Amino acid sequence: MNEAASATPSTTPVPASTDGKASRQRNRLERLWAVWRRKALTLREGQLFLLLAVIIGLFSGLIVACFRVAIDWTRFWLLGSSMEPSRLRVLLAPTLAGFGVALLVIYVFKRSRGSGVNQTKAAVFIFDGYVPFRTVIGKFITCALAIGSGQSLGPEDPSLQMGAGIASTLGRGLRLSRDKQRLLAPIGAAAGLAAAFNAPISAVIFVIEEIIGTWSGGVLGAVILAAIASVVVMREFFGSAPMFRVPTVEFRSPIELLGYAVLGVISGIASLAFLKFIAYLRPRLRQLPRWTQFIQPAAAGLLIGVIGIWLPQVMGSGYPIIDQALHDQFLWKTLLLLGLFKILATGISFVSGTPGGLFAPALFIGAMLGGAVGGFEHWLMHRPEESIAAFALVGMGTFFAGSLRVPITSVFMVLEVSGNYSIIVPAILSNMIAYFISRRYQHVALFDFLARQDGFFLPSIEEMREQTTLRVEDAMRPGNAIVFREDKMAEMFREAESSAPPQLLLWRREGGWRIVAREDLRQLTPAASGDFEIPSKGPVPQLYPDQHLDEALRIIGDWPLVPVVNRANVEKLEGVLSLDDILHKYRIS
Amino acid sequence: MAEETQARVCPRCGNPLPEGATECPQCDNRLALLLRSRETVLSLCAVILIVFFFLTGMITQSYHQKLDALGSQWFAAGQQQLKANDASAALSDFRNALVYRPDDAQVQFQLAQALSEEGRNEEAQSYLLGLLAHSPSDAPVNLALARIAAHSDSETDTLRYYHGAIYGVWPKDAETNRLNARLELCRFLVGRGDPSSADGELIALESEIPQQHGAPLHEQTGELFLRAGDLNRALEEFQRAMEAPHPPLGAIRGAGLAAYQMGDFHVAERYLDRAHREKRDNAEMDAALETTQLVLAWDPDARDLTDAQRRERVRHDLAQAVSRVQSCAQSAGVDLTEKTATQSNLATLYAQAKAMQPQLVDRNLARHPEQLDAAINLVFALEAAAQKCGQPTGLDKALVVLGTYRQGRER
Known about the structure:
The complex is a heterodimer.
Chain A: H1 2-6, H2 18-41, H3 45-78, H4 87-108, H5 117-125, H6 133-148, H7 156-173, H8 178-197, H9 200-212, H10 217-238, H11 256-286, H12 292-310, H13 319-326, H14 332-351, H15 359-380, H16 389-404, H17 407-418, H18 424-441, H19 446-453, H20 461-466, H21 472-475, E1 483-485, H22 489-498, E2 503-508, E3 512-517, H23 518-522, H24 549-556, E4 562-565, E5 573-577, H25 579-588
Parallel strand pairs in A: 1-2
Antiparallel strand pairs in A: 2-3, 4-5
Chain B: H1 2-7, H2 25-28, H3 30-34, H4 38-83, H5 87-100, H6 105-117, H7 121-134, H8 139-151, H9 155-167, H10 174-191, H11 195-208, H12 215-228, H13 231-241, H14 249-262, H15 265-278, H16 283-298, H17 307-332, H18 345-356, H19 362-367, H20 370-386, H21 394-410
Helix pairs in contact in B: 4-5, 4-6, 5-6, 6-7, 7-8, 8-9, 9-10, 10-11, 10-12, 11-12, 12-13, 12-14, 13-14, 14-15, 14-16, 15-16, 16-21, 17-18, 17-20, 18-20, 20-21
């Protein structure tokens, strides 16, 4: 405004040349433009961050839409449009594509290897959120080729990494601060995953559960915005129908929980077998001579082709097959067979270093095992006409929880995909059983041991999730201080005489909590106490029992002792806390 | 300190200057200079976003078109295979079509049909149950499920699905399809030997048959009534079928058989003879006609007989029965002359017949006309006893049939 005011033309005539006048006029306009631009177009960092989240979501949605089309086009080109391709195609397509993928990964897109989840985590925790755009292109091409050729992998984890890559590229382009750039990768990851899944809530929870590890308020809003923006884009191009056409499912009676518990046990064992298979074979294959890395994806492709001759359903991401299983289009024996062979095929594909995700295969295996358990149960109970959709749906989440160790995401995913809350109880029961079995016999989660095999020591989100938060009430000492009140001075002196602590706490109505040295107090005579100015230090900061201990550590500063008081009555002392108390608590925990 | 810091930072972009450099290398780059402003980068993003959006739109549109085309292509191929009676190939084609058109009920139904034709009823049932859950009143789905249930011997389900087909919604030709569904249900019930349920359904079917062009349906209904044992209704249905300008041969034959089983041999002979003249190679019909003609020739209870004719027939029938017993005893190794307390029924009857034969002279019969009835009863008893030696033929069969109807009448 000041600049604008100063730019107001003066009424005093100024002798000047025409050029000078024009120059001043131009300068004035430039200043006006600068002011307007600053006020109207310049965004604050917070606003820019939210706008950027939407842009990231839109870009992620677009690239994931193209990625989905690219996978299918590759499949049509390499395997044909039939679900039962000819033997020659089934054997040759994944083998040759595997060889091509190996060349691309080794020579052109070196960071495209793996599923994408750990790479995004590494970007967040190690590389300040840096994901090169080259990786986005590499992931797009290599994964489309691998999944489209029939390798038993899925498009979600790569989509997650592509989203993170786009976010990182935009962050760098806008020269955001390092802190903000670090936050952008999870935002992009959520957008990519939400677009791939067509399920924004599950994507947001997965990113928080597996990538970030904490419910950070600063990033949550942006993550949700990006996820929703990407899903909106996907729905624009692929319709609003969910990923799977889930028929109406219902939970009828508590007796059915027995079946779901059995499903939890079976999925837990299956996910454990899957994890052990990968944990055992992956490091051994990586230790083989370098030249074998050129042929490992091709060899995996050939093995999958051999399985595909008899069971072509295990090839690729398998979404149409999940859809068919949800609609009772397989017998329970077939479903069991498909589930078991998918574990094998996915394990082979993944350990060979072929880029691609584990989400879709995990959902496939879960749906097949769930369907098999449901079908067997109905066969046993002579209810063949009942749908197995509920079991298949719960099974999807169950194997997901057991193998990827994201129990909250898996429950929400089942609910979001089905849009049906009546199966929440079986879903939780089954998921928890599978999760606990997997956790009991495989201590390190899949993404954690994969990262360690790659030489990264990323924070274990599972361990972070289960860490106990220490609070003030855990470390404070009750009754080890004498509280002086100005209205009870006689008693105060008597107690001070006999007390051991060198510092005493004093409460003053005006001035709060203060510290008094016992020696200073002894020098005063009790008779004159009422009118004496007691030498004290303060006010001392006060703590509350529910505060985190690390927060207390910051607050305590150089004070030898701080009072822990009741939130409803700050005069009431709940205990005292010293630096030694805090350190002692940290040491023993 | 502040001056030193300012001296090491580019005044334009704010980035630190490399040591010893006087100009910022990033600001020297014109593109970098352009992209220095966030507004420029955001504007550029907006432009790229718009272009990318339209490109993606074109790509996905082409993708959806391709999927639709593939779905139609596989569906058409499947239908052709099904027409060519290659259910196995059709199965694979329909499965492929279903991947590209997952919500298409028609594809699912055809796939279930192909599975059913392949004998994979359990899988077909899965698809059909899925369709039924979506549309419980879909009559073709109910009918397909009924056929599968009929194979699996589940009578309750079969009846439920057949009724679903009868009372459900047909996409076209509802009346005809409903009639056919009921006809199928009746066949199922008759085949299972459940005449009471079948009779109820058949009566309902009978009332639904259209006036015109109903001859084949009347004929089929008559056949089912005949198999269910409701002979009167069977005869009525056959007679209705015969009202057509060109009555079907099956209806004439059926009417003859119905009348024959009812014991109305005059009517039976008329229809069976007519059917025989039109088509001669039906063994069952020929046998019935022969028996009918013999019955009519040697029935001692025929209404229009004189006493002499009746006596003649009784004597002839008794002689035939005795002869049948003799040949039966010979083949079975039974001694008909044995006179012990434990002698067989055959021997006892034979002895009675031999004793009665001399008494069947006109003079004696004029004094004791009741002996004629006793002789007739003995004839039927002899023929019945001789059946243990094998199925009778010719006049023996006619006498057995007569005996059966006489017993029925007396009951």
